Backbone:
């Protein structure tokens, strides 16, 4: 583990991994990588289409491959898919080589944020709220176990990004150095 090892943001769908990751990247020299986009680029279709055409198990294989490949990157911040860190093999691939951060957002906030979502395959079902609650409770222990740091994003994505920059002592990009509090 070193100062160049990837920072991996994990947590439930809708917790803000991508938004926070992009802000960290903008304020530091770190490259931003969205794990789902990485998979989509390699497969040439969206995550939704991968689920529709090949099913979840196939997607999880691609996701595992992405975890292994991305673990070897340097100087980047990665937003992982909401399910990625709930598989032991992915945690094993990432825990030694990366700095995993769990963005812990209460279920009620997640439900609100995702109320109109149409792109996430696991949420397209009539009993969405119940299914989401079950999945959330099942996954929470995995996120907590995988993460080296747990952050509770209360004051919006910019403040959360700033908190992570501070905790990990990430050097800021020139022109961003005086923007300490968002
Ligand atoms: C998933 C979360 C999604 C995406 C896929 C499966 C999950 O990513 O990887 O739809 O199992 O929670 P986001 O967390 O970015 O929505």
Residues:
């Amino acid at each position: 583990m070193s100062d160049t090892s990837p920072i991996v943001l994990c947590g439930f769908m809708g917790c803000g991994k991508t938004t926070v990751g992009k802000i960290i990247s903008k304020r530091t020299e770190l490259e931003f990588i969205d794990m789902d986009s990485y998979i989509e680029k390699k497969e040439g279709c969206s995550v939704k289409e991968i689920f529709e055409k090949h099913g979840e198990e196939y997607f999880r294989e691609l996701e595992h491959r992405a975890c292994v490949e991305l673990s070897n990157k340097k100087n980047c911040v990665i937003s992982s898919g909401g399910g990625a860190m709930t598989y032991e093999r992915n945690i094993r691939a990432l825990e030694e080589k990366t700095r995993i951060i769990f963005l812990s957002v209460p279920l009620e906030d997640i439900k609100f944020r995702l109320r109109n979502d149409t792109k996430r395959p696991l949420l397209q079902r009539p009993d969405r709220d119940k299914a989401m609650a079950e999945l959330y409770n099942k996954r929470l222990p995995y996120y907590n176990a995988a993460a080296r740091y747990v952050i509770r994003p209360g004051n919006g994505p910019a403040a959360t990004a700033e908190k992570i920059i501070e905790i990990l002592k990430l050097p800021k990009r020139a022109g961003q150095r005086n923007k300490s509090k968002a």
